[in-house]
Specification:
With about 375 residues, this protein is an alpha+beta fold. It has three domains: about 100 residues, TATA-Binding Protein; about 110 residues, no CATH class; about 120 residues, no CATH class. Helices cover about 25% and strands about 30% of the residues. Strands 7, 8, 9, 10, 11, 12 and 13 form a seven-stranded mixed beta sheet that branches. A six-stranded antiparallel beta sheet has the order 2-3-1-4-5-6, covered by helices on one side. A four-stranded antiparallel beta sheet has the order 15-14-16-17, with helices on both faces. Strand 5 and strand 6 form a beta hairpin. The longest helix has 16 residues.
Length: about 375
């Protein structure tokens, strides 16, 4: 039987470092005993954005044999003091890394994993309403059952009243716009109490899913623990507050470790609403086509701006990707920790070259008069 362990690592450890420094060596060490099955990044947004730690979910077949391998792997990787390895079911800390060494705690004589097995009591194609918060419902379109739990596609709707069947059908068949809704989710539970069945309402409507359950830009389905799935829905539909970076990550798939700024040569005056609408069209590369997307010319002013910006930071590690004047609509990806230095330079150069400049996290738009 597989047992789930949660590794919590404090410090400014971003996803790439987490994978290279910890997950890859751990997968190699565990081999046939198990491996990493998930992970996440913790961060603060006030007074400034900073990464505060990360989690790694590990599944193992033999806890007694796996623990020494996990201990040695994290010791070799110089895991920071405060790193813990916890048994997910019992909540018992099994390893704690301190400044003086590793403290080991013997697992319970018999760590019993709950024999709960999830099921899918709904028909394929059935439309459910799930109450995220008082008077806030989302829709779940049942696509079937995966290896660990039911598979849902989430239509792009959240409201206080469940619509009638005609409107429900239109909502379910509508193409999504948000990045996070580009695939169905296999939302699994480790226990019956993970999902509150009292918050589920069967609408009585059935809409046949697309062939093979595939929808839109992601092939297959994404697997998430139910609590993580529910949290994502609350963030996506504004039930809980999130930072602007997380909002753009959910809606456009932009990396939270980057600050994005758009610079282009508009044909005329641009309003903030126009700038936001165009940014969402241009930055949604995951969508094969976007009705709002326009083509912008790579003007001499834009070429001069890009050349000057790259020259100003030549040899400095401030970019989290590439950008070119030939794109016409230039989205500049900045390393978040460098944004305070880079943003004023972008604003100044855009003004000097009479270009429009839009910062989506604050929805700030500047446009020099031509």
């Amino acid at each position: 039987m597989l047992e789930l362990l949660v590794v919590r690592i404090p410090g400014s450890i971003e996803p790439l470092e987490r994978g290279d420094r910890f997950e890859d060596p751990l997968n190699k060490a565990l081999k046939k005993l198990g491996g990493c099955v998930g992970g996440g990044t913790a961060f603060e947004t006030s007074p400034e954005f900073r990464v505060t730690g990360c989690d790694i979910d590990v599944e193992v077949k033999d806890l007694a044999r796996a623990l020494p391998l996990i201990r040695d792997t994290f010791t070799s990787a110089n895991a920071p003091a405060g790193t813990t390895v916890t048994h997910a079911d019992s909540r018992k800390v099994l390893l704690r890394f301190t400044k003086s060494g590793v403290r080991e705690f013997a697992p319970s004589k018999k760590v019993v994993k709950k024999s709960f097995v999830d099921s899918c009591p709904w028909q394929r194609g059935e439309v459910l309403a799930y109450r995220l918060a008082p008077n806030r419902y989302v829709l779940l379109h049942v696509c079937g059952f995966g290896q660990t739990g039911p598979v849902f596609w989430v239509p792009e709707w959240c409201g206080s009243n469940i619509p009638g069947h005609d409107e429900l059908r239109q909502i379910v068949l509508k193409e999504p716009e948000y990045y996070r809704l580009g695939a169905p989710y296999e939302a699994w539970r480790s226990s019956e109490t993970d999902r509150d069945e009292r918050r589920l309402t069967r609408t009585g409507l059935t809409v046949p899913p697309r062939p093979k359950g595939q929808r839109f830009w992601f092939p297959g389905s994404l697997i998430r623990w139910w609590k993580s799935f529910e949290r994502m829905l609350k963030e996506l539909f504004g039930v809980v507050k999130v930072s602007p970076a997380v909002r753009l990550s959910h809606e456009l798939g932009l990396w939270v470790q980057s600050v994005h700024v758009a610079v282009w040569q508009p044909a005329g005056a641009v309003t903030k609403a126009d700038a936001k609408r165009q940014f969402y069209a241009q930055a949604s590369d995951f969508r094969r086509s976007h009705p709002e997307r326009k083509r912008y010319a790579a003007t001499e002013e834009l070429k001069a701006f890009v050349a000057a910006l790259k020259s100003a930071f030549d040899g400095k590690d401030v970019w989290n990707g590439t950008f070119r004047a030939s794109e016409g609509y230039v989205v500049v990806p900045i390393v978040r920790t460098k944004a305070r230095v880079v943003l004023p330079v972008i604003a100044r150069l855009a003004s000097e070259h009479r270009l429009a400049c839009y910062y989506p996290e604050t929805e700030k738009l500047t446009q020099a008069q031509r």
